[in-house]
Amino acid sequence: MTQLAGSDELNNITYKVIGAALKVHSRLGPGLLEHTYRRCLAQEIRLAGLSAECEVWITLDYEGLSIPEAYRMDLLVENQVVVEVKAVEKVRPVHHAQVLTYLKLGSKPIGLFFNFNAKRLPDDMKRLVNM
After folding, report:
1. 1 in a domain, yes or no?
2. For residue range 38-85, what is the model confidence (pLDDT) as tens digits?
3. What is the separation of C-alpha 128 from the centre of its chain, rounded to a whole number of angstroms?
4. How far apart are CA 36 and CA 54, in angstroms?
5. For residues 11 and 122, what is the distance between their CA atoms, to the nearest angstrom?
């Protein structure tokens, strides 16, 4: 099992990921497809010196039943921070709930949600914590 980073290290990781997302959004703007933003964001995260895995499929174990590829995280940074990338007209509560579910099921401490279809990315991003 991977040892979880301390809060200072997690804050540093999320700070770099947010910076990378802001950079991607400022260069590309809104209007593209999610997979484009996801790939560009992964590249910026790597350029910032962090590991980033795209489209990480997770197996769900439920009451003795194993469901391979039950859900997919858009990005997993440093094996600890789940990043959900959207390019939607309107963010719905279910989008944030989805990230919280990924955190819980994947035993990850922090999630970041970005809607790249926003005019201003800071208006449509959120940091979520697995309680």
Report:
1. no
2. 999 999 999 999 999 999 999 999 999 999 999 999 999 999 999 999
3. 10
4. 12
5. 17
CA-to-CA dists, residue 50 to 21, 76, 108, 123, angstroms: 13, 10, 16, 25
Domain membership flag for residue 50: yes
Euclidean distance between CA atoms 27 and 5, whole angstroms: 31
Q: Give me the amino acid identity at 86.
A: K
CA distance 98 to 35: 18
Query: 37: which residues sit within 8 A by CB, 6+ positions away?
Result: 24, 25, 28, 85, 87, 114, 116
Q: How far apart are CA 75 and CA 95, in angstroms?
A: 15
- Asked, for residue 48, whether it belongs to a domain, the answer is yes
